[in-house]
Amino acid sequence: MDFQRAGVRLQVLLGHLSRPSAPAIVASPVSWPASPASCHPQQFQYTLDNNVLSLEQRKFYEENGFLVIKNLVSDDDIQRFREEFERICRKEVKPPGIFLMKDVAIAKQDCTLNEKVITKIQDFQEDEELFRYCTLPQILKYVECFTGPNIMAMHTMLINKPSDSGKKTSRHPLHQDLHYFPFRPSDRIVCAWTAMEHVDRNNGCLVVLPGTHKGTLKPHDYPSWEGGINKMYHGIQGYKQDNNRVHLVMEKGDTVFFHPLLIHGSGRNKTQGFRKAISCHYASSDCHYIKVNGTSQENIGNEVKELAQKRYGIQSNIDFKDVWMFRSRLVKGERLNL
Ligand SMILES: CC(C)CC(=O)SCCNC(=O)CCNC(=O)[C@H](O)C(C)(C)COP(=O)(O)OP(=O)(O)OC[C@H]1O[C@@H](n2cnc3c(N)ncnc32)[C@H](O)[C@@H]1OP(=O)(O)O
Ligand SMILES: O=C(O)CCC(=O)C(=O)O
Q1: Which value does ipTM take for this structure?
Q2: Which family, according to the similarity comment (predicted)?
Q3: Spacing, Cα 75 to ligand 1 middle (Å)
Q4: How far is the CA of 230 from the centre of ligand 1 (A)?
């Protein structure tokens, strides 16, 4: 076992437990003329009562399972995230716990790591510069509408999506994020996904199936794609082509918030440029862990445990939930169950 590495991780974990939460968010006035939804006595399931979302926005999320907020993250912040991403690719900074992932089409090639070959970085919770994204007050203000006041950052990614190699491996199959999560309730989980540049169908923007958050969690596994599929990119099994797909065309700084049961994915990048996005999955710290043995999530649970055992050299009974406890960080309020 790599005791030194395990020790560093333990210190990091203890650091999180003793670290004060991010500064409290000062309530800011709503910028929409529509009246706040909380004035209207209605049954809402997916959003909470506060004065941030207008009634129109709230109804939209309830009905569709996603909500795009224009121009939420500044150009300056995005530039800083981009520069840090490039430093990480060049290995000038090595935050503990981070995954650098090459596309499966070039995974076995011995190429120098740079922006062109890294398809995404994952688990940047120990990189203070990138993790700033997860604590941005303007993001948390919206997150709180879905999670409530005690907010954990559970999962972090910067997806670079370089130009497709021709094998269509830059695609992300249609899936529901809840498949990856051993915690509930699903309605208190939300993803924030911010475009770092203009995204549309050409460079592989997000594709969503509106309203699918009202359904159940479907069985997922690797799709049998001819050109190969990236590690852990599970897709919904036997899913029929759906005409109801919506391509989310977004500008730099636009942010979409979406429910973990919303079926979504992304197409290949047909351009010569990138399709960068930064994202964080948040959950209320009131959520509780569940066992996934005997459920449709058992396959991903086993895969994640295997990877953790290989990576951290831990041979014993590491649980799926331990991996989540290990990497999640409080960003606001109190750490309760998660
Ligand atoms: C809600 C949210 C979670 C939705 C999602 O994002 S779903 C996708 C989640 N994806 C992940 O969590 C990926 C996690 N990352 C990883 O598993 C790792 O980074 C790996 C992709 C396995 C790379 O491992 P690492 O040890 O860093 O690198 P190595 O270069 O030594 O490769 C180890 C073996 O893995 C292979 N590999 C590397 N990249 C990929 C790839 N993109 N797809 C499939 N296989 C891959 C690589 O060829 C090598 O294989 P062997 O030589 O052992 O046969
Ligand atoms: O950014 C993408 O291409 C896909 C991201 C995604 O599916 C996710 O965050 O669950």
Answers
A1: 0.93
A2: Belongs to the PhyH family.
A3: 31
A4: 7
